[in-house]
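debug: dumping io for the single-chain case to check the tokenizer round-trip. Nothing else runs in this session.
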Amino acid sequence: MTSASDPVLAFPFVGGRPCLDFVATLGRRHATPVERIPDAAALAHWFHEAGLTPDEGPVQVTAGDLTEARVLREALHRVLRSAMADDDPDPADVALVNESAARPDLAPQLGERRWTARHPARAALTTVARDAVLLVRGPLLERVKKCENRDCSLLFLDDSQARRRRWCSMERCGNLAKIAGYRSRSRTGATP
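debug: decoded output
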């Protein structure tokens, strides 16, 4: 299971949308990938941290749910990247995302419970899939960006007023870039 004490495995919730945060459960896609949902317990933990659980505690997640989640995550990633590049996505990925989005999702509730569902894990995945469909089909797609840190592969919704956000977050990649820039300028200024 992921641990908040391990910064590599901690879930990054910097995407600004559930679908972008879910895609981020596989990190460093461009290098040696980091699987942040290695088991069913980690997926249940992600659902809980993402606020997609019907109760206060984690939901029951089966090995089948985990497999389905990983397949959906990768299809979502490919569909999002295709849409960002204004390319046609793979029809198989579109069919998978649409099939998942068509299932019953989490039903919002008033009172103590935030959500309800007959099959909470599957409903949480459906909620994520629907979020991706709405993002790809809506006006916010043009604001989805990839982090400019070459060691990061996270996608995020640029909600800054000037639409000039470059990093998935200042705490993760922005500060690293600032430190690297400072060190580079310091070395350049220190040599005659």
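debug: round-trip ok. Helices lie at 18-23, 40-49, 63-84, 91-101, 120-137, 170-190.
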